Structure formats: C-alpha cells, structure tokens
Amino acid sequence: MSESFPRLSARTRRFTLGVPRGFTISPDGGRVVFLRTKSGTDPVTCLWELDTDTHVERLVVDPRTLHGDDEDLPPEERARRERSREAAGGVVAYTTDKDVTQACFALSGGLYVVELASGQARRLDVPGAVIDPRLSPDGRHVAYVTGGALRVQDLITGEDRALATPESETVTYGLAEFIAAEEMDRMRGYWWAPSSDALLVERADEAPVRVWHIADPANPDRPAADQRYPAAGTPNAVTELFVVGLDGSRVAVPYEEEYLTTAAWDPHALSIVTLTRDQRTMRLFTVDPATGATTLVREDTDPAWVDIVTGVPAHLDDGSLVWVASSGGGNRLVVGDRTVTPPTLQVRAVLDVDHDSVLFSASGDPTEIHLWTWDGHSLLPVSTRSGVFSGRMAGGVGVLTEQSLDAEGVSTTVVRRDGMAVPIPSFAERPGLDLRVSLGRSGRRELATAVVLPSWHEQGSRRLPVLMDPYGGPHGQRVLNRRGAFLESQWFAEQGFAVIVADGRGTPGRGPEFERAVLNDLATPALEDQIDALQGVAEQYPDDLDLTRVAIRGWSFGGFLAALAVLRRPDVFHAAVAGAPVTDWRLYDTCYTERYLGHPDEQPEVYEKSSLFADAAKLERPLLLIHGLADDNVVAAHTLRLSSALLAAGRQHSVLPLSGVTHMTPQEVVAENLLLLQVDFLKKSLG
C-alpha cells in the first residue's frame, strides 16, 4: 500500500528533498557544483559536480562518509537554518574559491575543505563549533565564525587565529543579526576582499534588544531559552562595520542608518546599502577600504517604503552599476544611469552578472516568473514557456530551473555556450496527486486566483464546501504557475472541498502600488480581497460552490488572516484554522511590522486596527488555533493571548499547542498529523 499524501509530504519535506539547488558555475563554464540529496526521502544533502563537456555527474561529498549524517548543530546554526527555512541536513551550504577548485562547508559544527577535482575532503582543527565558513577568493584561507568570533585559517600553514573577538556575550562578529536574516534575506555578516587580504566584517551588539524567554511547558525541568527579540517599537541590535586585514589592521566604516541591508565587494568597489528605521530612505555607498570613508552613490526614497531587492548592487565589467529601483509604477532594472526595463515588467531579483550581461527574474503576469538578460543593448527573454523560472549564469553557461502546472517537480538544465542543454536530474518523490487547478482573475480587482477542485468532481454536479487557503500578505505569493504551490490545496480538495487560493493587495508581482495598498492597515485590504476573490469565483462556478459552508486556513500571516476572517466576517466565513498567527503586531519584529504600520508609539491606532484582541468578543464560528511552543519568529504568546481574550469574552475555541515545534514545523509526525487534524476539524465544523 502506498504512503498517504500527508505522510509522504512530511517525509519529503514537502517534496523538496532530491531537488538540485545551490548552483555554482566555474568561471570557464566547464563545471557546475550543486547540492542534492540522494533520494526524495533522504534528508542528508550531498555536494555534487557536473562536467558540462562530458555531461558526467560526480558525487563529491557524502556527509555519511564523514560521519555527518547524525548532526549535532550549535545553537547559532540551528537559528540560521530556521531563518533560512532550511529543512534538510548534511551539507546545506558551501562556498568556493574564485576558480571553483575548492569548497568549504560546516558539518555538525566541524569545518571541512574539499578539493573538487579529487573529492578529497579534510576536517580542519578549529577551537569551536563552526558557523558560515567562507573561502577566500584565492583559496588560501578560510574564514569562519565560532563563539561569536571571526577567525581565519591558513590552509597551507594551518595557522588559525582570531581576526575579531567579541567584547561581551551580546556581541558577535561576522554573523547577520536576527532582523537581517529574518526580514532582509541577508544571511551573512562578512565579505572577503577580491584581493583575499581583508574582509568587511559586521559587528552586532544585541545588548539593547529586549530579552524574551521561550519556555517548553511540556518539559518543566528544562530552563527557558533566552532570546533577544526586537519587537515593534523596541531597540534593534546595534550594527557596525569594519574592514579587517589579515595583517591585523582594523578600519571602521561609519554609517548613520538603522539597518545594513547588504554589502558587496567586487573588483570595482566595496559597496554597502543602508536603510533608515522608517524604511523610506535607502542609500548606496562606496567605501574606501584603506580609510573607511564612504561616498554616497545613490539615494532612493519612497513615501511608504523602499523595497530590498536581492542581487544588487553589482557591476558590469566596465564598472557600470546594476541596481533595481521603483519608478513609473514598476520595479525596474537600472544599469549605469539608464533604466532598461519597462514599468510593466516587475523585476524580482538580479541573479547574476556575467561580464557585460545581467541575468534577472521578472514578472509581467504576476502568476509567472521569467528569466531575462540585459546584454548592454537589449532585453532578451531566457524562458519562453509558461511557468516559474530561476537560474544562474557564469562563463557564458547558464543553469535554468523550471516549474509549471504542466509538469511535476523542478526541472534543472545546464545550457552550454553552444546552446546544448544538459539536464541535472531531480530525485524528488512524486506526490501522486491528480492536480485540477485553474488559474485566473477574480473579483472587482481582478485578483490572481487559483481554483482547485477534487479530481473526481464533475463540474455542476454538486455544490462543495469551500476552503480559502491563502497566505495573503507581503512577500508571500501563493498563486504561481507551478504544481508545487498547490499540492496541499489539492489534497484538501480531494477531501471534498472546493479550494480557493487568492493573492490580494500587499502580495508581490503586481507592482509597487498594489503592494503598498496595505500601508497602515494589514487587516482590512487583506480580508476584503479574500472576500472579493470568493465572490468572484462563486460567479464563475455558480453550481460548484456552497457559500453557506466556507472555511479558511493559513499559517503565519495566513493564520492571522484566517482568525481575522471568522472574527470580523462571520457572515462569510464559517470556520477557521489559524496556524502560528500574528494576533498583536506589537509582538512581531521591528523591520517587518514598522515597514507597514510605522512605529507603535507614533501610530497606536494603526496597530489597534490590525490587532485581533478587540474582536475577541465577536467570535461565533469554530476557530482552531495551532502554535509551536518553540517558535522564535511568531512566538506562542500570540496564540495564548488571543485565547485568553476569547476566554475572557466567553467565546468557545480550540487551541492545539505543539511542544518543541518551531515556526517551520519540521518534525515528520507533526507535519503529517497537522494536515489530518485540520481536515477533521473543518469537516466537523462545516457539517
């Protein structure tokens, strides 16, 4: 008997195991290094290499041969993986030298360097558990963080020394602070100079950040874990930058803004990007490594907020700056002093710069993400079929990943300079679902919407109970032309629901104006758009939807939206499952929350409008609250305080606490049974 979908989804980490990822192309385009597990149920990630000339694929590092399959991770690495939503184990990250001849990685806290040609890996002697090791461009040294100190080891002599040592227990060197990792997609805290003789290093001091205590009530003999959490309106960590030389020199790089969003050090410039606390002003500086003096290159402002875009700043071979800015109603690619994309093409990220060409991802239709290049003269589409694409480019060779509704899983292809395509196989498991997904637009605002019906349903034969299945908030787009986006939705549909997934205002892909509609109100537009989408789909499927039985489920922002729906619109929504919901935005972090709602001391009424507590007495529909008690992103206090408010108002509800579970819910048994329990709750609630 084959495994059920919930069990298989849990075992495969939602079908991500076995998928190639983490690509590095050698400068000559002859080799592609990447990560992949050996099967779709194997959680141990290995390092592989593909020869693009011979098409031969080779296993370079198997952690099991290094006794690294049973991981013992330092707390800092566990936190880093939680921030990056890393669900696998083994070699989950690596870096190479400039020529891609060596790679280094951390495994169970140990530091390893491998010669890619021979596959010979060696463990280096280090004084503590290793975080984020990075090879110097010339391959002579490897830098790493341990115990909050940034250290460097000479791979020839074996000399290992500290370049920067924390002055107190609240200080770290070379690590991204919580806000950078969780909200800015910056997972690193140091950058090698192209000359390999110095590094730009972040010093973060969390002393001003308030201490929260994450307890495990199921194990009262264990002390609570202390965490410094920068909640909205409270102090952030203090970050500073230094250019630290291998010769022991140390030069401060001053900046005044609250946030360091990113840095880059290439042969053209050492660059840093900063953001003010209100996030309305972003500044790009170049830095003189010898003196630390900064020169303002450009300043971007917006009355709402300035978006952080990955992959920039970068430079072409001639030194032209590559940047992404909002103008004319679109997020647009800027090269030098020229805006090269139209406002109708929403640039998502810059993926690579290869000499004089820029590879970037962008959307015309928000349900699709395509690859484009700018070659200095014209825009050229790289992907032409419908779907969601990403990729890398170096040495005239490209790596293309493709997903769509027409094919299962992720397809990965290496495109050589001569145009020949070389596939990199995926070992991912097949979900075993017969997807029945229709993408379209619905409602007055023509919202991107997916309608997911049971595979066995004959259209017009009966009216099905409805399940809204949104994320519905900033950064979280659900309606995309790829099968992986709808696997859980299809499974819920197979249980007898018509499932609707809608991306309302605030979600990405439709341009700055659409995203900024949630400024000062995260609740009203999001809820209105779910109702708008529901009514629009009901008009399209008048004989298939039973609007007297409508439920909604979601996680994180989606959990907030689900609870919001039954509290404020019980006339529309008849049951809700709210997983890890944000219930009071004062309890969520500074960078995310203040971007949309401002500072709570300056705009308390805005926070009240988006809080759920004042609506507790309105509850008249079944509500299931689910929360991991070890969640350090949306802490369990959100659910517990809402539950207390509901109890005080005499409103019946259900709470499912998950002992030892974080925001990711990575445990297989938990992930499997959560799906089953939700279906059972929804069926009973809707009758």
Please write out the topology.
Elements: H1 5-11, E1 21-25, E2 31-37, E3 44-51, E4 57-61, H2 75-84, E5 89-90, E6 95-96, E7 102-107, E8 110-115, E9 120-124, E10 131-135, E11 141-146, E12 149-154, E13 160-164, E14 171-173, H3 178-183, E15 190-192, E16 198-205, E17 211-214, E18 225-228, E19 238-245, E20 250-253, E21 259-265, E22 270-275, E23 281-287, E24 294-301, E25 314-315, E26 321-327, E27 330-335, E28 338-339, E29 346-354, E30 357-363, E31 370-374, E32 379-381, E33 388-394, E34 397-403, E35 411-415, E36 421-424, E37 437-442, E38 447-452, E39 464-468, H4 487-494, E40 498-503, H5 512-515, H6 524-540, E41 545-555, H7 557-568, E42 575-579, H8 590-597, H9 604-610, E43 623-628, H10 637-648, E44 654-658, H11 668-686
Parallel strand pairs: 3-5, 39-40, 39-41, 41-42, 42-43, 43-44
Antiparallel strand pairs: 1-2, 2-3, 3-4, 6-7, 7-8, 8-9, 10-11, 11-12, 12-13, 14-16, 15-16, 16-19, 17-18, 19-20, 21-22, 22-23, 23-24, 25-26, 26-27, 27-28, 29-30, 30-31, 31-32, 33-34, 34-35, 35-36, 37-38, 38-40
Helix pairs in contact: 1-11
Domain Peptidase S9 prolyl oligopeptidase catalytic: 488-686
Domain Dipeptidylpeptidase IV N-terminal: 107-372
Organism: Nonomuraea helvata
